[in-house]
Amino acid sequence: TPAASLGSAMARHAGPRLPLIVKNLIPTLSGVFDSQRITTTAFFAELLNSNVVNDLILLETMMDNMTGRQKDTCLLVRMLALRGLGNIASGSPEKVRKHGAKLLASMVNGMDDKDDPHNLVALEAMSSLSKLLDHVEERDIQSMLLHIAIRIRPFFDSEQPDLRQSSIVLFGNLTKFSEGNCEVFFEQILNGLVTLLLHLQDPKPEVVKACKFALRMCGPNMGCEGLCDMFLNHLREDRSLHYGEFMNNVCKHLMQSYPEMLNRLILTNLFYFKSNWVDIRAAAPMFIGFLVLHVDEDHCQQVDLDQLISGE
Known about the structure:
Blueprint: H1 2-13, H2 18-25, H3 34-47, H4 52-55, H5 59-68, H6 75-91, H7 93-96, H8 100-111, H9 120-132, H10 138-142, H11 145-152, H12 161-174, H13 182-198, H14 205-218, H15 225-234, H16 243-257, H17 262-271, H18 278-294, H19 297-300, H20 305-310
Pfam families: HEAT_MROH2B_C (PF23227)
Protein name: MROH1 protein
């Protein structure tokens, strides 16, 4: 936007004048006209992308004003406010740790925005949170980890590719913090595993790339060295994937390490028999076939054949 471009240019070239400009613009953030609030928020969001606001001791003021826009009646203002808060990760990364709890709370609130029909605020919250995670204290994220993981899970199957990509990348980034919550987060990995493996057949390359990243991140938390090695070796960004062969080996490891998971994995796959994406619809029965192929006889009783045959 022009306001963002102006903010970027002024951060580079007009540093000494910024304190007065910011001071004069702050009242428009609570003005009656949406257009003024949108323009000022976009301008501030872009300024926060630069360390100049920190040098000029404007960071806290601007951050408080961005946080204050989270209840704005205009969706675009709420979205841009989150973008500004996320931009602190690149503009003043050293300050993220200090304000971590506040910034994380803003992102979680953005994901829970009730008046967001096209999930624009949620998308901005997920993208910004991924940027902030590299700089926050582990204790600040731990208390929110489970809520965020559960909240973003439905976006893995969104019709909007950018929502699929952002939520899956964020999930991969969250796994860095799972050590203290290992058992709890392991459950979330199992909940998302089938979806991530099936979306390796997603029609959008950027979503496939996100799934590869998330699975590589999940591998070390799964307690199965063979599976972890497979994810790290076969899911490199630069490597093409022979999907059938890969899934055959993945299922072999899954049934060796977690045979009691068979029915749960099958049930999740059955959901994708009705997927809108033809390649994912085709991948789900293949996934089930490989699971059944590699499970030992003792665990075969878990399978509800009637359910499997009806495909529901």
